[in-house]
Amino acid sequence: AQSVTQLDSQVPVFEEAPVELRCNYSSSVSVYLFWYVQYPNQGLQLLLKYLSGSTLVKGINGFEAEFNKSQTSFHLRKPSVHISDTAEYFCAVSERDAGNMLTFGGGTRLMVKP
Amino acid sequence: ETGVTQTPRHLVMGMTNKKSLKCEQHLGHNAMYWYKQSAKKPLELMFVYNFKEQTENNSVPSRFSPECPNSSHLFLHLHTLQPEDSALYLCASSQGGFNEKLFFGSGTQLSVL
């Protein structure tokens, strides 16, 4: 069985500053990796996903993430955040032979301050 | 708007009540999911339906009963719930294959008194 750990429950950052949200996973088999975002009072939306190929994945809204197999990490980054990026961010993993069964991390609340 | 609609948005119920949560998608998807989102806990997958057949029941108590009458509709029937069942219940849908993007509804915020 796989698990996902998001090391920071909250990340405060000033507008236009860079940000990194950390995600580590554990699994005994190959995995697919995802980042979802949840804006207040809304459901989750897919930001980006890693399936195979290039380890640097670009997503929507200027976010990107890098898959590091040796460190079993999939950290999310953005070089310059906006107030509108304030939301909850979830890292998720699914095992390659497990269909679409996602295991989510506990989430990281990104708080962008003016 | 993601194309997945959940009703009601908020629900307050007593422990002896029976209620149902409804989810509807018009995206032509074949898989539908129920997730539970509790404060300070990761999202928990509850049930999965693929082509109207339940393919996953993640050790959910029997006081939660899903129903999928067709590929566009998914219900979660609730009865004799406990206060610890208070949470945001999220419905999602996907094409039904592997690595598919999930489309989530806005959720039903459930409070059990």
Concise synopsis of the structure shown:
With 114 residues, chain A is mostly beta strands.
Written description of the protein model:
The complex is a heterodimer of chains A (114) and B (113). Chain A is mainly β and 114 residues long. Helices cover 0% and strands 53% of the residues of chain A. Chain A has no helices and 12 strands. In chain A, the strands form 3 sheets. In chain A, strands 2, 5, 6, 10, 11 and 12 form a 6-stranded mixed beta sheet that branches. A 4-stranded antiparallel beta sheet of chain A has the order 3-9-8-7, with no helix packed on it. In chain A, a hairpin with a 4-residue loop joins strand 8 and strand 9. The mean pLDDT of chain A is 92. Chain B is mainly beta. The mean pLDDT of chain B is 90. In chain B, the strands form 2 sheets. In chain B, strands 2, 4, 5, 6, 9, 10 and 11 form a 7-stranded mixed beta sheet that branches. A 4-stranded antiparallel beta sheet of chain B has the order 1-3-8-7, with no helix packed on it. The termini of chain B are far apart. At the A-B interface, strand 6 and strand 11 of A face strand 9 of B.
**What kind of assembly state do the chains in view correspond to?**
heterodimer
Number of strands of chain B: 11
* Sheet of most strands of chain A: 6 strands, mixed
**Beginning-to-end CA distance, first to last residue of chain A:** 41 Å
Q: β content of chain B, as a range? A: over 45%
Number of helices of chain B: 0
Low-confidence stretches of chain A: none
SSE-based structural type of chain B: mainly beta
Number of strands of chain A: 12
Gross geometry of chain A: globular
One letter per element, helices H and strands E, the order of chain A comes to EEEEEEEEEEEE
Average predicted local confidence, pLDDT of chain A: 92
- Number of helices, counting only DSSP H or I runs of 4 residues or more of chain A: 0
Instruction: List SSEs of chain B in N-to-C order.
Output: EEEEEEEEEEE
Question: Quick one: overall form of chain B?
Answer: globular
| Largest interchain contact | A-B, 24 and 25 residues
Write down the Rg of chain A: 14 Å
Radius of gyration of chain B over all CA atoms, rounded: 13 Å
Stretches with pLDDT under 50, minimum 5 residues of chain B: none
Mean pLDDT, all residues of chain B: 90
Percentage of residues in DSSP E strands of chain A:
over 45%
